[in-house]
Automatic annotation (TrEMBL), chain A:
Entries under Pfam families matching the protein: Ald_Xan_dh_C, MoCoBD_1, MoCoBD_2
First and last residue of the signal peptide: none
SUPFAM superfamilies: CO dehydrogenase molybdoprotein N-domain-like, Molybdenum cofactor-binding domain
Top-level taxon of origin: Bacteria
Lineage, opening ranks: Bacteria, Bacillati, Actinomycetota, Actinomycetes, Streptosporangiales
Region (Disordered): 1-33
Domain (Aldehyde oxidase/xanthine dehydrogenase a/b hammerhead): residue spans on this chain: 40-147
GO molecular function list: iron ion binding; oxidoreductase activity
Gene3D superfamilies linked to this entry: Aldehyde oxidase/xanthine dehydrogenase, a/b hammerhead, Aldehyde oxidase/xanthine dehydrogenase, molybdopterin binding domain
The protein's name: Carbon-monoxide dehydrogenase large subunit
Automatic annotation (TrEMBL), chain B:
Molecular functions (GO terms): FAD binding; oxidoreductase activity
Domain of life of the source: Bacteria
Keywords, ordered alphabetically: FAD, Flavoprotein, Oxidoreductase
InterPro entries: CO_DH_flav_C, CO_DH_flav_C_dom_sf, Diverse_Substr_Oxidored, FAD-bd_PCMH, FAD-bd_PCMH-like_sf, FAD-bd_PCMH_sub1, FAD-bd_PCMH_sub2, Mopterin_DH_FAD-bd
Species name: Planobispora longispora
Domain FAD-binding PCMH-type: start-end pairs: 1-171
Keyword Nuclease attributed: no
Alphabetical list of SUPFAM superfamilies matching this protein: CO dehydrogenase flavoprotein C-terminal domain-like (SSF55447), FAD-binding/transporter-associated domain-like (SSF56176)
Protein name: Carbon-monoxide dehydrogenase medium subunit
Pfam family, one: FAD_binding_5
Length: 781, 291
């Protein structure tokens, strides 16, 4: 990326008394370098990769959720004209299993048994994608089909339930224990309880899984992939290929959205296996149907909550059970359970707590990371409970939340003290006091529930208002050191100081490359910043997930720039032939080395001359601890971020259709680094929460997905997602770079319960399951 | 797969006679989805895009409109919206603007999906489908006889859909469709109504709530007997109409909705669309607009 914008009117290399700060730094909203290309359809995504002579790979997947593989016969497929290779589990060069974190239980290719519909069994490489698909159909597999194990409750609690895989059926049980719930039950004046369900949401990223593997002369492979975390991919790919990590060169390709769905591997090992086997480049692109089987989804949840309170709405205890169905393999289930447990009652101060969160294995679709990651499911339940409590106590929904709100200095359920500002009660007040949208204008059917389909001209439409609050952990938790690395190089090119920023961090559409350049401009006082393609020739940047890249890679770029800046200062002192400590407080502003006392000392270009200053830094957040396996106690989170939503909906109560009229959000982001990108994140997170509230669900019966297409897996359109009113607060987190808080996930938590609360307000119905379907509102069966 | 590209209607009929297994393709908004999902691998595609006359519509001497099978939805809305308002409303709910630029009523008829948006207004408006074969010439099939099973029509393998014929509206017409999204959504179920004041008759069409698109015949007969065309709408008549329309449906449970909900929604849409049509008719607004 190159930026040559205006800004400083001062001619380069002419020191003046005043150094004007350049534009495009932290706090500005420079345009994204990839923005115009994406809008015009010219951006090269990983599915656009092309190299002469490449083959096309295809993946044969199981049609059954659970079956024994009796035999595999690839001979007819191999004999198909145009086919270069057909591979099975026997051809996996190294380890046969991979997985996130330390649980390597997912077969590269199924051996002996398949445990979910769509599990990969065999690979084909051919000279044309259609040839590969046709050859794939000639692979003969004899299955012994078994009854799928799809009952998450039995998987968790019934020792007689058959095992899905050798690890047993319980991936993790994480309890949280605070105070004495049984004693508190005796004191409660008001008791409310509910059972809540969350359906399977899909990330529904628009760019399907795709990439290119090119065999290299050293016996290694060059991989061009769309992923969220190259280094963690590499840790899994290398052992499965039987190659040392240094023989695998990874380059990030254009990523068409991620939302957690690219944390797990998809086609990476498969394409590399085919490339190494054939000695030719191999490209794999999933189509939309295959994509629904090519990545993990959001865990569906069954949740049982009971709260006891005083008559005036102070919660005395929470008794909670959260059951998350992870499908056949572990993926991110361990950490999703950790989040659901530690954030199981959200941002409320409750003196007595009993939470049991379970993650189980079944033959249902595999589930793992998705925006909100365990906290989304819990948030729907605890916010529904707050509304129930409000009603039972005769309080309004805002007041009951304020009465129990956490704040700076409060303890979370885990005992972790909230060290940074958390003005939740005030944020709720702000949300309530925002102006209401105008009353329904029924003159345009697009304003009405049903929209363009003309189901009402205003008949049966009732308005409702609801609130939701969500608390999300930012960065990885439970003792994980998810550091990031940045290499920054400063030199004069063509007479102008240019900063080169090199990280392995994945730009997945969130705007990270824009932010990296902003930070370099602010820290180095230069205009021109070039972002090096993300690859594994620089250290680990961690995952583009957990809302963590602004914090972590932002922090790494900041510290690397600061190290480069120290080098510039030292060089300036040498050029001026003065001891550094006599120059006063130095800074780099507007292309100049500036002393607080003496003003502009020199242009950066004059200081640098032919010198090149390059520094690499790792950025680590403050260490966290694990959760106690019995009590859940621990300082397990790096940072916590809050969003408050107010939803206004119009509901056609006769047809059960919903139009979300307005979503207002109040979010504390610590520091606005780029308002345009930030607002995009809040809008997008809110829309994804809206999708979960009223339409997005992978429908499964007997372990099989019934709607693997965008015809039947619906995501919100512009007529579904309303205009938003945003109040963005900047109460700095003293531990974070620039005081920032991760912002991408919190709105995904709170918009879902706010919308459902508004539908309840309009209809008077209990609505304990998301997504809310029309028949839930009309009472049809 | 062979790709046949006739440039005239006669060539197209000859090609279809020669290759009855060839799948006709116009906008491709339906056929290409099936191909992309690998649901069908037809031996041949018969591309009708170069048969220019299919993209034309005319007013016939009998007063009816004859609309070529290749007229896209976007033109139907722009050029015939006043004369075929029910069909135009349905066309507005088809997919996205890009799909409406390419998709055609002819294609909707060819697919004969119970969820096709064109079908209910074609049924309510007494449309007749003009089909033709090289061997037997033209056949006129009333819409009510065109749909014979799930994604099956009365079309013979050597026949092609040439046009549909439909009278310009003589009374208010409405189309209503339930989907779980406010735009760009396939029908959970749909309902169309057309008032035919000269005949004192009300036409109906039900979509996506039976194996085929179908009329709510008992509901139509009930209105023909009970509706007082010179009075306000009797709430009891309205309620009974809704019940009969719902009873005319024979929906299933599927991933888009439940049978019970569909039956309920058909009843609600029947009542609402009749109310809108009646209010428009009684206000004289329709005559003023049509006149």
């Amino acid at each position: 990326m190159t930026r040559t914008g205006s800004g400083s009117a001062t001619p380069v290399r002419a020191p003046r008394d005043i150094a004007a700060p350049g534009t495009g730094g932290v706090g500005d909203s420079p345009l994204r370098p990839d923005g115009t290309l994406k809008v015009k359809g010219e951006f090269a995504y990983s599915s656009d990769l092309w190299i002469d002579g490449m083959l096309w790979g295809a993946t044969l997947r199981s049609p059954h959720p659970r079956a024994k593989i009796v035999s595999i016969d690839v001979s007819a497929a191999l004999a198909h004209p145009g086919v270069s290779a057909v591979l099975t589990h026997e051809d996996v060069p190294g380890r046969k299993h991979f997985g996130l974190d330390h649980t390597w239980d997912q077969p590269v290719l199924a051996a002996g048994e398949v445990r979910h519909q769509g599990e990969p069994i065999a690979l084909v490489a051919a000279d044309h994608p259609e040839t590969a698909r046709r050859a794939m159909e000639k692979i003969r597999i004899e299955y012994e089909v078994l009854e799928p194990l799809t009952d998450a409750r039995r998987a968790a609690f019934d020792p007689a339930y058959p095992q899905v895989q050798p690890r047993g059926n319980l991936a993790r049980h994480q309890p949280v224990r605070v105070g004495d719930v049984e004693a508190a039950k005796a004191r409660a004046e008001v008791v409310v309880s509910g059972e809540y369900r969350v359906g399977i949401q899909d990330q529904a990223f628009l760019g399907p899984e795709s990439g290119l593997a090119v065999p290299a002369e050293d016996g290694g492979v060059d991989l061009y992939v769309a992923t969220q975390w190259m280094h963690n991919d590499l840790k899994q790919i290398a052992p499965c290929l039987g190659l040392p990590e240094e023989k695998i060169r990874m380059t990030l390709s254009g990523v068409g959205g991620a939302f957690g769905g690219r944390e797990d591997l998809s086609m990476q090992i498969h394409a590399a296996m085919l490339a190494l086997h054939t000695g030719r480049p191999v490209k794999i692109v999933y189509n939309r149907y295959e994509s629904f089987f090519g990545h993990v989804h959001r865990h569906p949840a069954e949740m049982r909550y009971e709260y006891g309170a005083t008559k005036d709405g102070r919660i005395l205890y929470a008794d909670v059970e959260i059951l998350l169905d992870g499908g056949a393999y572990t993926s991110a289930t361990m950490n999703v359970v950790g989040n659901a447990a530690s954030l199981g009652v959200g941002p409320y101060v409750i003196p007595n707590i009993k939470i049991d969160a379970y993650g189980v294995y079944t033959n249902n679709p595999p589930c793992g990371a998705m925006r909100g990651f365990g906290a989304v499911q819990a948030c729907f339940a605890y916010e529904s409970m707050m509304d129930k409590l409000a009603e039972a106590c005769g309080l309004d929904p805002v007041t009951v939340r304020q009465v129990n709100a956490a704040s700076q200095g409060s303890e979370l359920a885990t005992g972790q003290v909230i060290w940074a500002p958390l003005p939740m009660a005030e944020m709720l007040r702000q949300a309530r006091e925002l102006p209401m949208p105008p009353p329904l204008d029924a003159s345009d059917i697009r304003n009405l529930p049903g929209g363009a389909s003309q189901t009402t001209h205003g008949e049966g439409v009732r308005r409702g208002v609801g609130y939701g609050v969500g608390l999300k952990n930012i960065c990885f938790s439970e003792g994980y050191d998810d550091y990031s690395t940045a290499r920054v190089r400063l030199e004069v090119i063509g007479g102008e100081a240019v900063a080169l920023v090199h990280t392995a961090a994945a730009e997945v559409g969130q705007g990270l490359v824009t932010l990296e350049a902003q930070i370099a401009r602010t820290e180095l006082g230069v205009e021109r910043v070039v972002i090096h393609p993300a690859d594994n020739q620089v250290g680990d940047a961690g995952s583009s997930s957990a809302s963590r890249q602004s914090y972590m890679t932002g922090g790494a770029v900041m510290t690397a720039c600061q190290a480069v800046r120290e080098g510039v200062f030292a060089l300036a002192a040498a050029r001026l032939d003065r001891p550094l400590d006599t120059l006063g407080d130095l800074s780099l502003v507007g292309g100049k080395v500036v002393s607080e006392s003496a003003g502009v000392l020199a242009a950066i270009e004059d200081v640098l001359g032919d010198a090149v200053i390059e520094e690499t830094r790792e950025y680590h957040h403050e260490p966290t601890t694990g959760m106690d396996p019995v009590t859940g106690r621990g300082d397990s989170h790096t940072q916590l971020a809050l969003c408050v939503h107010r939803a206004v909906v119009d509901v056609d109560v006769e047809l059960g259709l919903v139009k979300v009229v307005e979503l207002a959000a109040v979010q504390d982001v610590g520091k606005i680094l780029n308002r345009l990108s930030l607002e995009g994140q809040i809008h997008g997170g809110t829309a994804q929460g809206l999708g979960l509230a009223v339409m997005e669900e992978i429908v499964v019966s007997d372990g099989k997905v019934r709607n693997p297409s965008f015809t039947d897996y619906l995501i919100p359109t512009i007529l579904d997602m309303p205009p938003m009113r945003l109040e963005i607060l900047e109460n700095a987190d003293p531990r974070a770079p620039y005081g920032l808080r991760g912002a991408g996930e919190p709105p995904t938590l709170s918009s879902t319960p706010a919308i459902v609360a508004a539908i309840r307000d309009a209809t008077g119905l209990a609505l304990t399951r998301v997504p809310v379907r029309p028949e839930h509102i009309t009472g049809s069966s | 797969m062979d790709f046949l590209r006739p440039t005239t209607w006669a060539e197209a009929l000859a090609a279809k006679a020669d290759r009855p297994e060839a799948v006709p393709i116009q906008g491709g908004t339906d056929v290409m989805v099936e191909l992309n999902f690998d649901l069908h691998r037809p031996a041949a595609l018969l591309d009708l895009n170069q048969v220019a006359e299919l993209a034309e519509w005319t007013s016939e001497e009998d007063g009816r409109l004859r609309v070529g099978a290749g007229v896209p939805y976007v033109r139907l809305i722009a050029e015939l919206g006043n004369r075929l308002p029910g069909l135009a409303q349905a066309a507005r709910t088809v997919g996205s603007p890009q799909i409406r630029n390419r998709g055609t009523v002819g294609g909707n008829l060819g697919a004969a999906s119970p969820a096709g948006d064109s079908h209910p207004p074609l049924l309510a408006g007494d449309a007749v489908i003009e089909v033709e074969s090289a061997a037997r010439g033209v056949r006129m099939i009333p819409a009510a006889e065109f749909y014979v099973g799930v994604k099956r029509s009365a079309l013979e393998p050597d026949e092609l859909i040439r046009a549909f014929r439909m009278s310009p509206a003589t009374g208010p017409q409405y189309f209503s469709k339930v989907g779980t999204r406010n735009a760009m959504v396939i029908a959970v179920c749909s309902f169309a109504i057309a008032l035919h004041p000269a005949e004192r008759r009300v036409g109906t069409g039900i979509g996506s709530a039976a194996p085929t698109p179908r009329r709510a015949l008992a509901a139509e007969e009930f209105l023909a007997a009970e509706l007082d065309w010179d009075a306000r709408l009797d709430p009891a008549v309205l309620a009974r109409f809704g019940e009969l329309a719902a009873e005319a449906a024979s929906p299933i449970d599927d991933v888009r909705g439940t049978a019970d909900y569909r039956r309920h929604a058909i009843g609600v849409m029947a009542r609402r669309t009749l109310t809108w049509a009646w209010n428009e008719f009684r206000s004289g607004h329709f005559e003023r607009r049509a006149g």
